Amino acid sequence: MDWSSLFNGLSELVVVAIIFVFLCYLVFSINLKLLGTSRSSFALNEAISIYLFGTFAALAMVCKPMLLALHSNLTVRGADEGIFIFQLEFYKLLFILVVIAAILYSLLFSFCIFLYTKLTFSVNEINDIKNNNRRSAIVLCGLLIAVFYTSSFIFDMIFSNVFQNPVNDFIF
After folding, report:
1. What are 100-140's pLDDT values in tens digits?
2. DSSP letter, residue 123
3. CA atoms within 13 A on the CB side of 126
4. 12 Cβ partners below 8 Å, 6+ apart?
5. What is the dihedral angle through the alpha carbons of 118, 119, 124, 130, rounded to the nearest 10 degrees?
6. Is residue 114 within 8 Å of residue 123, measured between CB atoms?
7. Short-list 58, 26, 56, CA closest to 155
8. Three-class SS of residue 1?
9. pLDDT for 61-78, tens place per residue?
10. Cα–Cα distance between 136 and 51 in angstroms, integer?
11. Predicted structure pTM score
12. Which residue of 34, 68, 142, 165 is 20 to 30 Å from 50, comparing CA positions?
């Protein structure tokens, strides 16, 4: 049995899980600042909970193709190069992908907020959610999930093109 491939897979998973948890915490903190609330009001307000579910689902839809592209690129290299997480190349590729994912997430999230304001004719959509308007939260959550799921196929193309370019200089 090839133990290095098993160790590579598990160690990749641990590093990526830590980064994903950090990204979720970052998105959670940014949204709480955006809503102007604290962690205690998060537990009381169902609309904020629904809204944050949509943001976390959207983040997962951006990260899934990123992680698949990273894993497929590392498995192509094979187990001959040793343990991946101890190599600088792994972190370089992961950093490039996280930056691209953050840019894509920011752009699409802004687009969803803009589209939401045009669909509902509401100027203060964040205040509606802050004031426990569940209808607004459900509409925005559904819009986030729909737009990010539809765009996930484009994310697959973007993240796979990062590795096809030999110098890893992917410009939008």
Report:
1. 888 888 888 888 888 888 877 766 777 777 777 888 888 88
2. S
3. 12
4. 70, 71, 74, 84, 85, 90
5. -150
6. no
7. 58
8. coil
9. 887 887 777 777 666 665
10. 9
11. 0.67
12. 68
Residue with the two structure tokens 């809503």: 35
10: nearest Cα among 85, 89, 98, 87: 85
* CA distances for 166 relative to 72, 95, 170, 172, angstroms: 16, 16, 10, 16
Which residues are within 8 A (CB) of 132 and not within 5 positions of it... i.e. 6 or more apart? 45, 46, 47, 48
The pLDDT tens digits for 16-26 are: 778 778 887 88
Torsion of CA 16, 155, 142, 122, to 10 degrees: 110
What DSSP letter does each residue of 33-93 carry, written as one string? HHHT--HHHHHH-HHHHHHHHHHHHHHHHHHHHHHHHHHHHHHHH-GGG--GGGSHHHHHH
